[in-house]
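Students often ask why inverse folding is considered easier than folding. One informal answer: many sequences map to the same fold, so there is more than one right answer. In these notes we will look at a single instance of the problem. The structure comes first.
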């Protein structure tokens, strides 16, 4: 037989406790952190799929049009989301019972810093050079397709780093 049921507070009190426990600054920051990461990583994966469709397209100028869209998404979506993920993550470590010396926090910070550096130091500038190449050689030049493929290959590695960071954040390796 089971023992007596543990005493529980009346329903109204329990709901108030749940609301106080879940709607606090830490959980709001965690929600925004996860949302920004989903937008960033999900957007990057979607961009890879759209890139393949553009590269397979027979429409004149489609690859060049995609390249312009890719550059815009990088600047207007990925850059702010990556910064938001980093800033919110730092805030979560400071507000939570975590420390910056934990392995999973260090791995996360290094991984995010690496992907931000890759975006700002390589992907962004290469997207700009791609625009110049399109202007110089034409939208459908073979060199344009080659450059797009090179940028996409680096972006795939960047996505793998992001997925590894997500895994480390979820499992809290080394905690």
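Output (designed amino acids):
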């Amino acid at each position: 037989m089971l023992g007596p049921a543990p005493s529980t507070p009346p329903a109204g009190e329990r709901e108030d406790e749940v609301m106080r426990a879940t709607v606090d600054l830490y959980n709001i920051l965690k929600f925004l952190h996860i949302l920004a990461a989903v937008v960033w990583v999900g957007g990057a994966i979607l961009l890879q799929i759209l890139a393949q469709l553009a590269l397979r397209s027979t429409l004149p100028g489609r690859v060049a049009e995609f390249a312009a869209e890719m550059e815009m998404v990088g600047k207007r979506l990925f850059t702010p989301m990556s910064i938001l993920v980093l800033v919110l993550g730092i805030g979560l470590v400071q507000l939570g019972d975590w420390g910056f010396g934990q392995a999973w926090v260090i791995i996360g910070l290094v991984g995010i810093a690496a992907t931000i550096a890759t975006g700002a130091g390589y992907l962004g500038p290469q997207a700009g050079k791609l625009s110049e190449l399109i202007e110089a050689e034409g939208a459908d030049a073979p060199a344009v397709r080659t450059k797009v493929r090179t940028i996409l290959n680096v972006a795939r590695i960047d996505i793998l780093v992001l997925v590894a960071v997500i895994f480390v954040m979820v499992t809290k390796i080394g905690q």
